Automatic annotation (TrEMBL):
The keyword Metal-binding applies. Keywords: Metal-binding, Transcription, Transcription regulation, Zinc, Zinc-finger. It comes from Citrus sinensis. PANTHER family: GB|AAF26970.1-RELATED, PTHR33304. This is AIPP2-like SPOC-like domain-containing protein. Residues 20-138 form the AIPP2-like SPOC-like domain. The lineage of its organism: Eukaryota, Viridiplantae, Streptophyta, Embryophyta, Tracheophyta. InterPro entries: AIPP2-like_SPOC (IPR056280), PHD1-3/5-6 (IPR049914).
Amino acid sequence: MSMGGRQRVVSAWIMVKDGGGFKFFDTAQMGSFYGGFLAQLPRSVHPKVFEFSKKLPKILQVRLLQRDHIWADLFGNDYPDFPDVALYFFPSANIERSKRNNSCLFDILEIRKSVMICYVDGVELLIFTSKQLDEDSQ
């Protein structure tokens, strides 16, 4: 969980407390809010990740980062899989707007080959689509 002196939590695309979401503070999406997401921990989770999850704000302030800038450092020539996932972010099933946001946000991340990045309590959180996981983990 520690990388180069900084704590890092790697998360596949996948949740932030009921009605929570992501707000961009840079790029062309500046100020855009994508809401209606729920956060969920995997079945087995490191205690540090569990404690970190309690500190998540309802709205994560994110920016886009090109995947290729960090991918090789994190995963080499491989894809992330279950041990790399600290949190899952899911669109809320009961919020219609969430479905539209989900689709639009996926498009942004895939077309631009990007990940979202934010910092919570000194921890770097990387958020990417489940398509970026290895096939068995999707």
